[in-house]
Write a structure and sequence with these properties.
- This protein is mostly beta strands.
- The protein is built from 1 helix and 16 strands.
- The strands form 3 sheets. Strands 1-6-2-3-4-5 form a 6-stranded antiparallel β-sheet, with no helix packed on it. The protein has a 5-stranded antiparallel β-sheet with strand order 9-8-7-10-11. It has a 5-stranded antiparallel β-sheet with strand order 14-13-12-15-16, with no helix packed on it.
- It is found in: Cytoplasm.
- One of its GO terms (molecular function) is translation elongation factor activity.
- This is Elongation factor P.
- InterPro entries: Elong-fact-P_C, NA-bd_OB-fold, Rib_uL2_dom2, Transl_elong_fac_P/YeiP, Transl_elong_KOW-like, Transl_elong_P/YeiP_cen, Transl_elong_P/YeiP_CS, Transl_elongation_fac_P.
Length: 190
């Protein structure tokens, strides 16, 4: 059994146990209604299934922190079924099924350092860096003067993913993307 904490100590990206399953806290909200007891509404992602649920706790409740191994690894390659990662300290290779990565796989780049979460030796989750730099390999050309950032166009990046970018972005440009949302952050000059 893991460590228990008061629900008021919950933080984003914390790992908790709910109904015997490990969850990652995506967001939370302390609610203090005019009448009745305060409560905490938690939006959490099941680390095994990927399902996102909302859980409501009374402010007096405590929660159990999930207890599993976290290892920093580097992405190596995809073999059609699994994504392979290498532990930079030991040289160990770990295969992570595509189902565990889900949509995050579209932002994986060779050599990218990630955190792999293991439950009894089995990979149950992967955390990519919050943002990363990608090269635009395909998009409609931008025109001089197109500096408005509110209008977006699709662009294919070097991992094959398609993201929305401002009109002034051209093929060959390097851009920073939020890997959690897939949103454009900024153009990078290298």
């Amino acid at each position: 059994m893991g460590v228990k904490i008061g629900i008021n100590q919950i933080k984003k990206d914390m790992f908790i146990v709910h109904d015997g399953q490990p969850y990652r806290v995506l967001d939370y909200d302390h609610v203090k209604p005019g009448k009745g007891q305060a409560f905490v509404r938690v939006k959490a992602k099941n680390m095994k299934t990927g399902n996102v649920i909302e859980i409501t706790y009374k402010s007096s409740e405590s929660i159990e922190l999930a207890d599993f191994e976290q290892r920093q690894m580097s992405y190596s390659y995809f073999d059609g079924d699994s994504y392979w990662f290498i532990d930079m300290n030991t040289g160990d290779m770990i295969a992570v099924p595509a189902s565990v990565l889900g949509d995050e796989a579209q932002f994986l780049k060779e050599g990218m350092e990630v955190f792999i979460f293991l439950d009894k030796g089995q990979p149950i989750g992967v955390e990519l860096p919050k943002s990363a730099v990608y090269e635009v390999i395909e998009t409609e050309p931008g025109f001089k003067g197109d500096t408005a950032t509110s209008t977006l166009k699709p662009a294919k990046i070097d991992t094959g993913a398609t993201v929305q970018v401002p009109l002034f972005i051209n093929e060959g440009d390097k851009i920073k993307i939020d890997t959690r949302t897939g949103k454009y952050i900024e153009r990078v000059n290298e």
